[in-house]
Specification:
Largest sheet: 2 strands, antiparallel
Number of strands: 6
Shape: elongated
Number of helices: 12
Structural class: mainly alpha
Distance between the termini: 90 Å
Radius of gyration: 29 Å
Strand order of the largest sheet: 1-2
Strand content: 5-15%
Order of helices and strands: HEHHEHEHHEHHHHHEEH
Length: 335
């Protein structure tokens, strides 16, 4: 009986053994280098891409033989989550295992994302952190960036950038300013009565005062309505800019808060950026606006509104008169 059972298992064992041998040969063939070429190529890993996409792109660039072998290896080895984003130097002369190892080491170039609405002092700290600069490198980078971007608040375009780990602060600032010019020049400006500095200044206030793309054109129209009738802009963000500039000008990298919660005394600060005290637009931008806010500054929505406020959950409410606005304050902010 046992012999019959064993004989019955022989075909199954043979099939499994044959499969394992075939798999071993398949793996060996597909994990070998694509060629003997030792010249490195640039390979870009975009943040958020999975192992399947990365494997396909490696195959397309002639750096591995099989996307499936790549995917199996990174999952079995537990390295799928260790692959970094950035630009790497990879040679087709590397084995699949060596290629994966290369992708888990610090890349030659790194992705750095700069969100909308930051001051240039905040922008430079984002780069210092993303490029993993040591103390002495950070000091030099910060000085170069702030010097190169002096007088260019608002004109540093928020975006996701790819930079070498050795990029200088000056090179980074110039790149951001150049991208801003390209993006801004593409925008429609017909019928706009503001000059470029005024447009960017308005856009920077919109960026800090709003929370969604939908409300930005409306708030833009409200701010322009105030300007048209000689009313103060009364935008908290401008006062935050003024207060933080006074408090943090001597300790840029250690400033605890570039956008402080305002007190009643702050509203009387003697600064041209205090839009509660001085009418008209501030002398320059208070932050670096994104494309949505720039478009809103150039394309305001017509309305009779003069006031707006946000609830704690972000919901915005508009009003045409001070009486309506005060009612909104009582209803939605409980003041």
């Amino acid at each position: 009986m046992k012999i019959k059972k064993f004989l019955f298992l022989i075909p199954f064992i043979f099939i499994v053994f044959s499969f394992l041998i075939s798999a071993l040969f398949w793996w060996r063939a597909n994990s070998l280098p694509v060629s003997t070429d030792s010249d490195s190529q640039d390979f870009l890993v975009v943040k958020g891409k999975g192992a399947s996409q990365i494997g396909e792109e490696l195959k397309e660039q002639g750096l591995i033989k099989s996307p499936l072998a790549f995917k199996i290896y990174v999952q079995v080895s537990g390295k799928s989550k260790k692959i970094l984003s950035g630009q790497f130097k990879i040679s087709p002369g590397l084995s699949l295992i060596q290629v994966v190892d290369s992708l888990t080491k610090p890349p030659a170039e790194l992705w750095v994302t700069i969100p909308e609405g930051l001051r240039r002092e905040e922008v430079v700290e984002r780069f210092i952190k993303a490029l993993a600069l040591n103390t002495s490198e950070a000091i030099s980078f910060r000085e170069e960036f702030l010097e190169a971007s002096k007088g260019q608040e608002g004109f540093l375009f928020p975006d996701t950038y790819l930079f070498p780990r050795t990029a200088s602060g000056r090179a980074v600032a110039l790149r951001m300013m150049n991208i801003f010019k390209i993006k801004y020049d593409e925008l429609e400006k017909e019928g706009v009565s503001l000059d470029d500095n005024e447009v960017v200044t308005l856009a920077s206030i919109i960026e800090r005062e709003t929370r969604t793309d939908e409300e930005r054109p409306v708030v833009s129209g409200i701010l322009l309505n105030r300007l048209e009738i000689g009313m103060g802009l009364q935008a908290d963000a401008t006062v935050q800019y003024a207060v933080a500039t006074d408090n943090c000008q001597l300790k840029t990298e250690n400033c605890p808060n570039w956008w402080p919660i305002l007190t009643r005394d702050d509203l009387s600060i003697n600064s041209p950026y205090n839009s509660y005290k001085f009418r008209g637009l501030p002398p320059g931008p208070i932050a670096n606006p994104g494309l949505s806010s720039l478009k809103a500054a150039l394309n305001p929505e017509d309305s009779d509104y003069l006031y707006y406020l946000h609830e704690d959950d972000g919901t915005i409410h508009y009003a045409k008169t001070l009486e309506e606005h005060n009612d909104n304050v009582r209803r939605f902010l409980g003041k």
